[in-house]
TrEMBL record:
Residues 116-142 are annotated as: Disordered. Pfam families: RF-1. One of its GO terms (biological process) is rescue of stalled ribosome. This is Ribosome-associated protein. Residues 8-133 form the Prokaryotic-type class I peptide chain release factors domain. GO terms for molecular function: peptidyl-tRNA hydrolase activity; ribosome binding; translation release factor activity.
Length: 142
């Protein structure tokens, strides 16, 4: 089990890794060895994650969430499989930690007196502009 927070843990057996050739650093070795780690984790099937956190993870994951409900994280910053594997796990844990914090509730505020006065003044000014564009009967008709 990978402990994310005190109430969230993910099972290491749920994590699936595939290794592919990475772009980037590696020199001549980069074309021979599959060092990039692609981590797949089934979000909706995870047992150690509360439902509200799953919903926030789905929103935060964006394109990393597949239609099958799996989160895919590709790590290729490092030259070795082990470091890329650890980096992918670390990024998944970071995503879960970010989603574990509930959003702050919005506190409704009233518009200030000055903003209400500005709004009324702008409306009056706009109305005056429109009044000058009116067709006056008898004078403007030809």
């Amino acid at each position: 089990m990978i402990r994310v927070t005190d109430r969230i843990a993910i099972d290491e057996n749920d994590l699936t890794f595939t290794f592919v050739q990475a772009s980037g650093p590696g020199g001549q070795n980069v074309n021979k060895v599959a060092t990039a780690a692609a981590l797949r984790w089934p979000l909706w099937a995870a047992n150690g994650v509360p439902w509200d956190v799953k919903m926030r993870v789905a929103g935060l994951a964006g394109r990393r969430l597949t239609q099958d409900g799996e989160i895919v994280i590709v790590a290729q910053r490092f030259r070795t499989q082990e470091r890329n594997r650890a980096d992918a796990i670390e990024r998944l844990v970071g995503l879960l930690r970010e989603a574990a914090e509930p959003p702050k509730p919005r506190i409704a505020t009233k518009p200030t007196y000055a903003s209400r006065v500005r709004r009324v003044d702008d409306k009056a000014r706009r109305g005056a502009v429109k009044r000058t564009r009116r067709v006056v009967p008898g004078i403007d008709e030809e």
